[in-house]
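Supplementary Note 2. Why include the ligand at all?

Several targets in our set were suspected to adopt different conformations when bound, so apo predictions alone were not considered sufficient. For every target with a known small-molecule partner we therefore ran a joint prediction. The input for zinc ion is given below.
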Amino acid sequence: MIQLTSAATLESAIRKARTVKPRVHVNCFGRYTVTNKQTGATYTVTCEKRDGKRFASCTCRAGELGRACYHVAAAVAAHIQLASERAASH
Ligand SMILES: [Zn+2]
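The joint prediction is reproduced in token form.
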């Protein structure tokens, strides 16, 4: 579980996501499948809010160790976009 405190938490992961450009599939709001198109590796990222704090987790090795990986960075970008679309439609 990774706590998303600020953009700085994900800064290097975002940089890596921009290089790797993984595919993000939305399973449902808050649950994403991230695929590395080069290797075909697929991981599940979940985003949730608890007590006003944002958390994310990833099934990859780094994610299991609580490190912000690029899968989380990619999924969080999709999550934020989805959240703003939902907010706009209500
Ligand atoms: Zn990961």
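The chain has three helices and five strands. The two ends are 30 Å apart (CA to CA). Comparable summaries for the other entries are listed in the accompanying table.
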